[in-house]
Design a protein that fits this description.
360 residues, cobalt (chains A, B), globular, Dehydroquinate_synthase (chains A, B), homodimer, alpha/beta, three-stranded mixed sheet, nucleotide-binding (chains A, B), 11 strands, Rossmann fold, 45% helix, Dehydroquinate synthase-like, alpha domain
């Protein structure tokens, strides 16, 4: 049993496959780009769990299959780590047809995708996300990047994968903290696009946390559907796509302010959504009851709802570095109504007020 | 008096302006993308000569204009140098609308273009080429890159500039060795696409070397026209565009084999064209008289025609790293006839033979 969600950006088109057992299912691997060499990029945590079955699948399709194992964690999402991939590709005689397979979470996917975008000015790559966050968000839509010491995801490219295989079985090995982090991005789709999905998440959160297969399948598929629709309409974030960053302006500031890797990305986004909802309420887009509802759901998902006390000045200066900022003006994804979002600036005083009210 | 050549890749379109005095001509700067910040990227050699007049032009159009000065030379065309641009952009609070201006030769243009492609996943940039090589080749067509210790231009992107200003006056300050290097890329367009242009170059080489304005204007314009036509038909080098790499497979091996910066890129290409023509003759595409004619012209342009003695094994292994290689098979741009080229493999034995005959 498997769902297929298609992403169509107008000039590129690819499938997201969602289901159990995909990594071991030959049908899921059929029709990928041909090449003499396939390279599996993973990290020290995920490679021991799944690299062998991936290599086995690829072995029947590519003359040569090699592996690169990166250090694990957001703290390593930088140029030096990406260069390990380039060193490997050149040492192995990779060419413009070589296919990269990103096996792991969001960090592996983002680095591998950016490496694929840059190596020889572009080689094909496939996403094999093994975390909930990567399956519902980062592996879909072609945003790739590495961090710069002064800002998250500052250096990157829009570069679409050829396919995304979301094998739900890989979620079984995910530590609870990482699973919760992924739930933040699932919850996100409700307030910005689909209140019926938010209702469903509230009703099925216990089943999700218990990792019941049917609940996981629905959450991943519906998340991918919403993301595919948004990305299809606005691949390069000229406008609409920015709504996918709900909670991310505050979230990125938390990540950068505490040092990348201190809070997980999803944890920062969970808390960031609470702050963004509160800011939206001050501007009249939603009411306080909605903010309380979202806060309760984020808390139930095992995510922090109270921001770190960075101090107002530091918060503002970190958020001014956000990629959505323009001419020094911070722009937030705010809720215009439940299920509807847009990107807008907000007065510094109001932002500071919200932060102060939450202990930030 | 100014010529305009338009590049149209189907989804992007921009003008190359060719003429004297463009850097100081307000009309040449009209209609560029609006932003709060413009950043001029140059190097230690070019900045003292032209940065001031560029900053002056930009000062009337952008609220803030800042400068980054890179170390000069191919040896610095790497990630570390590109990171100087990122550091500057983040320190100055650049955003997604910030416009980069690449003022200098091919190295400055390639690094700045790649930085523009990656910064926040893409900001606009403008090419202000000040060398003959950059004006007739590297600033046009959107190939951007940095070198990797194991290969030239291995890490990069296809990313088009918003405009190219070829101010012919800047060629006056070019050292003779660099001017000759640029002539290699001018000569290149003859054998691959336009034998009438080759005739013209032969007839006007003395005028070109004397840097007579009318001769320079014609050489730059016609080179840009041919390049724009090829790039418009095949932006991402699916096929045709590869012919622009005539002489480059041998040339890149010379550059990498001796260490980047030892020979200038154009010098390596000049010598590489002699070898590629000789290889084409062995395969019947042109006759020996043509090879002698091209060799004489390359020599008259002040370029080396004898390759360094790297040894056959090293030559082949360096060329196997070329981006045009596939599954370990080296592919050359060969002449099918005078004025007509295509990319093809050639037997190792024949390549070795040609190298041996030329003392390589």
């Amino acid at each position: 049993m498997r769902d297929i969600v298609t992403v169509d950006t107008g000039h590129e088109r690819y499938d997201i496959l969602v289901g159990p057992g995909l990594l071991a299912d030959p049908a899921a691997w059929a029709g990928l780009p041909k090449a003499a060499l396939a390279v599996v990029v993973s990290n020290t945590t995920v490679a021991p769990l799944y690299a062998q079955q991936v290599v086995q699948q690829l072995g029947t399709r590519y003359a040569r299959v090699t592996q690169v194992t990166l250090p694990d964690g957001e703290a390593h999402k930088d140029w030096a780590t990406m260069n390990l991939i380039f060193d490997h590709l050149l040492a192995e005689g990779a060419d413009r047809k070589t296919v990269l397979f990103a096996l792991g979470g969001g960090v592996v996917g983002d680095i591998t995708g950016f490496a694929a975008a840059c190596f020889m000015r572009g080689v094909p790559f496939v996403q094999l996300p093994t975390t909930l966050l990567a399956q519902v968000d980062s592996s879909v839509g072609g945003k790739t990047a590495v961090n710069h010491p002064l800002g998250k995801n500052m250096i990157g490219a829009f570069y679409q994968p050829r396919r995304v295989l979301c094998d739900l079985d890989t979620l079984a090995t995910l530590p609870p903290r990482e699973f919760s982090a992924g739930l933040a991005e699932v919850i996100k789709y409700g307030p910005i696009a689909d209140m019926a999905f938010l209702d469903w998440i509230e009703a099925h959160l216990d089943a999700l946390v218990a990792r019941e297969p049917a609940a996981l399948a629905h959450a991943v598929r519906r998340s991918c559907e919403i993301k595919a629709q948004v990305v299809g309409a606005d691949e390069k974030e000229a406008g609409l796509r920015a709504i996918l960053n709900f909670g991310h302006t505050f979230g990125h500031a938390i990540e950068a302010g505490l040092g990348f890797g201190e809070w997980l990305h999803g944890e920062a986004v969970g808390c960031g959504m609470v702050l963004a909802a509160a800011l939206s309420a001050r501007l009249g887009g939603v009411d306080e009851a909605f903010v309380r509802r979202l806060t309760a759901l984020v808390r139930r998902a095992g995510l922090p709802v109270q921001p770190p006390a960075l101090g107002a000045e530091r918060w503002l200066s970190l958020m001014r570095m956000d990629k959505k900022s323009e001419a020094g003006e911070i722009r937030f994804v705010l809720l215009d109504a439940p299920g509807k979002a847009s990107m807008r600036p907000a007065p510094d005083a109001l932002v500071t007020d919200v932060l102060r009210a939450h202990g930030g």
